[in-house]
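Interim report to the steering committee. The following record documents the input for 1,6-anhydro-N-acetylmuramyl-L-alanine amidase AmpD (194 residues).
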Amino acid sequence: MIEHAELAAWQQGWWAGALRRNSPNFAPRPVGEAVTLAVIHNISLPPFVYGGDAVEALFTNRIAADEADPFLRSLTALRVSSHFLVRRCGAVLQFVSCDDMAFHAGASHFRGRSGCNAFSVGIELEGCDFEPFTSAQYASLLNLLAAIGSVYPVAAVCGHQHIAPGRKSDPGHFFDWPRLQQAGLPLDLTVQAA
């Protein structure tokens, strides 16, 4: 049974523990579709640069066509977003209501189903495949996953690499899956076949 305090932390799919940044890159979930999967990603923009506002700009379609950085300029046509971003300091930002589907997984498969956006939440960790994430990020991630699981029937947590093998490698080999397992989360790290 869901406790009143847990419900109070959520308003129409928006979590009170996150800073809200509205993204237009979402669509309604299919009728009757439940959130049963949490997908962990990583992102840094430009690559290996942390702390700026480029990820927020990407997820809110604010990267300008005249952007000085050529890598960022190449992203202007993308229309993507995760539900959440966990910064290196542990701050959590939310871009899309969990009641809607964010455009985070792309071509993906999980347990025989394609199109994971329809039944998942996407959580980006500020980082890359090539270095460890911070303790503050893990603390915030565990808190966030507990909050999501308190109101949505999440049956599994996995990485983008598991649902889009060969196309994606995040969150990468530095991600500490045992830490999530020790917290009792329902991990499914099986690489899914297309």
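The first strand starts at residue 10 and ends at 11. The committee is asked to note this result when reviewing the revised timeline.
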